[in-house]
Amino acid sequence: MSASVRSILEVKGRDVVTIGPNVTMAEAARTLDEHKIGAVVVVGMENRIVGIFTERDLVRSIGRSGAGALEQPVSAMMTANVYRCSESTTVNELMEVMSSRRFRHVPVEESGKLCGIISIGDVVKSRIREVETEAEQIKAYIAG
Ligand code: AMP
After folding, report:
1. Which of 30, 40, 70, 103 is most deeply packed, by most CB within 10 A?
2. What is the C-alpha to C-alpha distance for residues 11 and 118, in angstroms, rounded to an integer?
3. What average pLDDT is seen over the chain?
4. How many domains does the chain have?
5. Atom from ligand 1 closest to the CA of residue 57
6. What percent of the chain stands above pLDDT 90?
7. Is the CB of 119 under 6 A from ligand 1?
8. Whole-angstrom Cα distance, residue 78 to residue 20?
């Protein structure tokens, strides 16, 4: 039985760094740096998710348009069709989605409300913990 997103959020907390769609990419870059994170969730009215903007999008926009891109709004480069999960999603499901769709961040939503974010680092940490627990159990079984 794979661990759930809920078990990760109970340890890391449910705070999510968000920005509005009209914020410039330069400001978004400052936000990523300030919080030492790789992605921000873009929210509109009533905190509804309208996109996700990650360091990958920032690099892509500078690669295409040069430094001038930094003054454009994040809405120009964010991904608007955001894949989300719920607290009951399993870590194994997320691992599958992140590797097949090639992204490293998934916001968590419950009843239309943003209530957390899972990064690939959280998924890896959770899997390592599971594997270590399994190994301990097997060792204890063999010894006893
Ligand atoms: P990442 O690996 O998370 O930096 O994201 C790589 C690309 O996928 C970027 O263009 C992101 O905007 C996009 N992306 C990241 N997370 C998601 C998500 N949960 N749903 C849809 N697109 C995403």
Report:
1. 40
2. 12
3. 96
4. 1
5. 10
6. 94
7. no
8. 11
Query: Can you say whether the dihedral through the CA atoms of 39, 44, 47, 48 is positive or negative?
Result: negative
Q: Please tell me the distance between residue 79's alpha carbon and the centre of ligand 1 in angstroms.
A: 7
CA quadruple 35, 75, 105, 29: dihedral sign = negative
Tell me how far apart the alpha carbons of residues 67 and 16 are, in angstroms, rounded to a whole number. 28
For residue 75, what are the domain limits? 5-143
Burial of 92 (0-12, 13-18, 19+ CB in 10 A): middle
Q: For residue 53, what is the enclosing H or E element?
A: strand 49-54
Residue bearing tokens 């989605």? 97
Cα-Cα-Cα-Cα dihedral sign, residues 61, 23, 94, 122: positive
CATH at 104: 3.10.580.10
